[in-house]
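Predict the 3D structure for this chain.
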Amino acid sequence: MATRKKVKSKSDSTGSVKHRRKLVSELMVQPTMNAAVSIGHLNRQIDFRQAGSNESVMGLDSFTLLDELTKTGQQIGSGDLGPLEEMLLAQAKTLDALFHRYLHRMDSADYLPKAEAYARIAMKAQHQSRQTIVTLGELKHPKRATFIKQQNNAVNQQINQGGAQNDSSAEKPENFEQSQNKLLEQDDGERLEPGT
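Done. Predicted structure below.
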């Protein structure tokens, strides 16, 4: 039995390729798609087989990851910070496990430089774990915003309004002390300054 191949015209295949390129380009500028591709790439060597099964499950489906990341983003956008709290807690626990692993490696190191390197890694992991826990605490219990009204108690404060352009054109009174304390009045005796 002979099978017959469907032949596409050049215009159909070119249009299809252009359409796919456009779709892929639109997807790749989305942060969630970039994250899905990165997560899939990082986990491509991990075998996710089920317990008792001999079937190897390698790699992850990028579009399923994209859907899950989009759902998580929508949850966070609606105000549910549960996924972020779970992520930070998992990171803190992972960093804590890393701290203990390198602490034990430091104890069994043969040479001092190797022990120092392990100690540095352990301390960095411990520091990052602490920072992650602090971040989680701030996420659960945000700090209150404090607005402080600042009073300027400068004795001889100089205020230049208008800058250099007003310096040359401004008329300076000859007797500065008298003009400062002089009460401003119109010709008919009405005072110009309110409250005097």
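The first helix runs from residue 10 to 28.
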